[in-house]
User: What shape does this take?
Amino acid sequence: MSVSGNVSSHQVSSKKLRVVMAQLDFLVGDIPGNTDLVIDATRRASEEHQADIVVFPELCITGYPPEDLLLRPSLELRVNEALERIQAEQLEPAIVIGAPLRHGALLYNSAVVIEGGTITGRYFKRFPPNYQVFDEKRYFAEGQDVLTMEIRGVPVGVTVCEDLWKDGPVEDAAAAGARLIVNLNASPYDVDKQARRKSLLERKSRENRVSIVYVNLVGGQDELVFDGGSMVFDHSGVLMAEAPQFDEGLFPVEFICEHHCQPVSQSLPEEPSLEANVYKALVTGVRDYVNKNGFRSVVLGLSGGIDSAVTLAVAVDALGKDRVRAVMMPFRYTSGMSLEDAEAEALALGVQYDVFSIEPMYDAFMATLSGPFEGTQPDTTEENLQARLRGVLLMSLSNKFGSLVLTTGNKSEMAVGYSTLYGDMAGGFDVLKDVPKTLVFRLANYRNTLSQVIPERVITRPPSAELAPDQKDEDSLPGYDILDQILNFYVERDFSADAIVAEGFDRVDVERVIRLVDINEYKRRQAPIGVRITERGFGKDRRYPITNGWKSGK
Assistant: This one.
C-alpha cells in the first residue's frame, strides 16, 4: 500500500530488490504505441531480469515534450485509457511511469506507481522547469506533496526530473524514510550534460544518505535529442551503475536493502570522447526525425566541402546507404577538386549519386532577368541565384520521391547569416545546425577513425562556398577559430560587445560579428530545425525579436 509521509525503519529487513531502468525511445503523441511499449518492456523486465520494480522515463505515456498536445480536450480520456490498459495486464513487477494527470482543475506532470493492476501511488512534479527549451509552466501546475511508499517492502521515494535539481523534493523524501529514490527524467542532451548530472547525483545521494535511481529518456524529438545515460548512485555518492548513452535497453540493478539500499556495483561504460558523443547525438537525431515522421529516404546536396561530407556520413550511419541520395550540382566556379572529392565521398559510403549541372538553368534565369538587371554590376544576387537553383532541384527530388532534404549549414554560418534563404537553407532538417564550424572539422576527423570516408584534403583545404572565382569563407568572415569563440561568448553566454573585447578580441571583429548575428535573426526564423547539442541552440533556446531597436555594446 502506498503512503505519503514517514515510513518507520523497522518495516525494512535485509532483502534483495531488483530495479530495471527502462531506457527507451517513445513517440510523442502516440499514446497507444507508448502504452504497448511500457507493457512489453515490463513483461521482458520480468521474464529476462526478474524485476521487482521497472522505472520508465518522464511523461513516457505521451512522449516528451508533448507541448500543446497537452491542451487537447481528449488528453485526459486517452491517458486514463492507457493507465487502465496497463492495470488490466496485471503485470508482476511494480511499475513507475510518467504521465500527465489532471487533479481537480489542474494538470500535473506526474509519476504513477502501479502494483498488481492497481494504482498505488501518484506523485506530482514540484518544479516544472521554465527555461532554455523547457516551458512546462505553460501546461503544468506545481505539485506540493511528498511520495514515499513501500514497494516490495522497501521505502521508495518518487521524484520527477527537475525535482532533483532543486532543494526540497529529494530531501523531503529522504526525511520521510525513503532508502531509495527513483527519479524519472526527460533530460535532453548537450555536450557536457552527463557530467553535470553526475555531479548533481553524487551530491544529492551523499548529502541525503539515500541511493538514487536516475532513469532518462533516449531518442530524438524534433530538435531535441535525449541521450539516456541512466544511472544509479549509492547513499555515499558513488556511481554504481550507468547505462550507455544513446542506446535503448532494459538495465537491471540489484540492491541489498538493510539500513541502506546498497546497489551492487557494475562495470561502467568507457567515457566517450566529445566527438564520439556529439556524433552519436547527430545520428540519433537524424534517425528518429526521419523514421518517426515516416520519410522513406533523404537527399542532400554534396558540394565537396566538409559540411556536406559530415552530413552525408551522419545520414548513412543513421539510415543506411540505401536510404540516402547525394546530388552534386556544379557550376562554372565549382573546382575539379570539389567534383572529385564529392564523388569519392559518395563512393566510399555507397549512396546513390547524381551530378546535375545548374549552368543551363542559371543562364535561363539570367536571360529572363537581363532587362531589369541592365546597367547593374554582379553581386551577391548572382551568387544567391546559384544556391537557389540548387534548392529548387533538391526540393523537386524531395517532392517526387518523398525524400526529406537535409541541409548542411553549420551553427557558425547560421549565426552570421552566411547562407542563402530559399537556397542552401531550403530543406526539412539541418543536421549541423547547432555544430560550430571548428567542431565540424573535429567530427570529420573522428568519423575517419571509424572508416575513411572523407578525403583528407576536404578537411585541410580552406572552406569555400564556390559561388564566385577563388572564393573563400574567410574572405567574408573572421577565421573560424576566432569566429566560433566570439559566437560562443555572444550567443551562448550573453556577453556584451565590451565584455567580449575585454576577453582579448579585436573590437572591429566583435562588433561586426554581433551585427551579423543580430540582423540575420529573420533568416534563422525561416531555417529548418536541426539537432541541438549545446546549451543554447538556435530555436527553442534563443528567441530574439526580428524587429527591434536594441543597440549592442555594453
Observations:
- The chain has two domains: 15-264, 276-368+378-462.
